[in-house]
Amino acid sequence: MNASATVRVRDPYLDNAKCVLVTLVVVGHMIADVGVGATDAAYKWIYAFHMPAFVLISGYLTRNYRGTPRQSLNLVTALLTPYVVVNVVQALESAARGDGFALNLFKPSFASWYLLALFAWRLLTPVLRVVPFVLPLSVLVSLAAVTYHGIGQDLSAARIVSFLPFFTLGLLLTPQHLAAFSQMTAPWRVRAAATLFLVVAFVVIAAEHAHIKKVWLFMYGHVDSYGTDGNPGNLAVRAGVLLTATAMTAAVLAVIPRGRSALTTVGANSMYVYVLQSIIVYALLPSIERYHGWSTGKGIALAVISVGGALILGSPLIRSLTRWLVDPFGTFPALQRIAQRKLPAEAPGVATVGR
To answer: Which of 26, 168, 335, 353 has the smallest set of CB atoms within 10 Å of its CB?
Structure first.
């Protein structure tokens, strides 16, 4: 992250939340093809809220974006660079296992869509700030995305518009809103109720998981596989997904620890976890897909291993060892100087956009 004219104090609550959510990203990717019993239910429970919550936090951390030259450069170095890295490495992995080298930067490879989507959302931020009634309009855009066969995933288009309400909501939040939410959810009874809600949500999803289609939760691609009666059914499914995700996001954020902990460091390194797991899990996917001996117990064991893997990837040691890959502009001063050589001086008080 580039140095800022003002010192930004990291909020441990947000880093704790990012740790929990990026860990769920790793778990979700690892157990995606297990597809049995409680593991399938857990997968769909995770996908009901984890990326909406992540996108909401990303929107909140974008509230300081004003499109200054330095902030715009930061979008390239912090988002587009790892996006290209992930796609190139995954293409090399495909070639190594005999599937051929296929690199198409216009169509995000496995798990890289978020980097490109976040780049687009941040570019849209100045527009989103001036559009009246932007939150309800973004909901309408997300709903419209599932009409007439939906939208393709080229350049992350489908997910950019589908997740837009959560990014917009995060963008509209202020530190005062966050403080009020923290105060409202501080009593143990409120947090207990939020925990109970998440447990009930899991029970309901577990009971109905065979009838819940993964494509409803993915928020991308065409909707021909939705299995509904056309536009009315597609709209009902998308509205249900948006409402469920909003409620579960609020509940999860209510139970996130507020103070500094071991989670905080991992959350601060969430970009490293996301990028590295995209590369590692992609390499493991063929073996997971070919294995047909999955059981609920083995699925749970794989989930536990995934949690441990996420915490390791977010450690300071792994960050120091892999910074050259994830953040080459921050690693090599020569690259940074080349990138910044024509930048004008930043106005005092303009903050760097958080990750």
So the answer is: 335
Burial of 50 per CB tally in 10 Å (0-12, 13-18, 19+): buried
Query: Which one, of 324, 325, 320, 346, lies nearest residue 333 by Cα?
Result: 324
In the chain, the amino acid numbered 216 is: W
Which whole number is the average pLDDT over 73-86? Answer: 95
Instruction: Determine whether 340 is exposed, middle or buried from the number of CB atoms within 10 Å of its CB (0-12, 13-18, 19+).
Output: middle
Give the number of other Cβ atoms within 10 Å of residue 33's Cβ. Answer: 16
266: enclosing H helix or E strand: helix 262-268
Return d(Cα 96, Cα 85) in angstroms, integer: 16
- Could you tell me which residues come within 8 angstroms of residue 123 by beta carbon, excluding any fewer than 6 positions away? 67, 75
Distance between CA atoms of residues 59 and 300, nearest Å = 32
Taking the C-alpha atoms of residue 218 and residue 239, their distance in angstroms, rounded to an integer, is 14
Map out the domains of the chain as residue ranges.
12-340
pLDDT digit string, tens, across residues 114-166 = 999 999 999 999 999 999 999 999 999 999 999 998 998 899 999 999 999 99
**Tens digit of each residue's pLDDT (9 = 90 or more) over 194-224:** 999 999 999 999 999 999 999 999 998 788 8
pLDDT band at 4 (very low <50, low <70, confident <90, very high): very low
* In the block, residue with structure tokens 């995934």: 306
Q: Give the separation between CA 351 and CA 63, rounded to whole angstroms.
A: 10
Region of 58 on the Ramachandran plot (φ > 0 left; ψ -120 to 50 alpha; else beta) = alpha
Taking the C-alpha atoms of 284, 286, 287 and 292 in order, what is their torsion angle to the nearest 10 degrees? 140
What are the distances in angstroms from CA 47 to CA 202, 217, 241, 280? 11, 6, 10, 20
Give the length of the chain.
355
Buried b (16+ CB within 10 A) or exposed e, 96-119: eeeeeeeeeeebbbbbbbbbbbbb
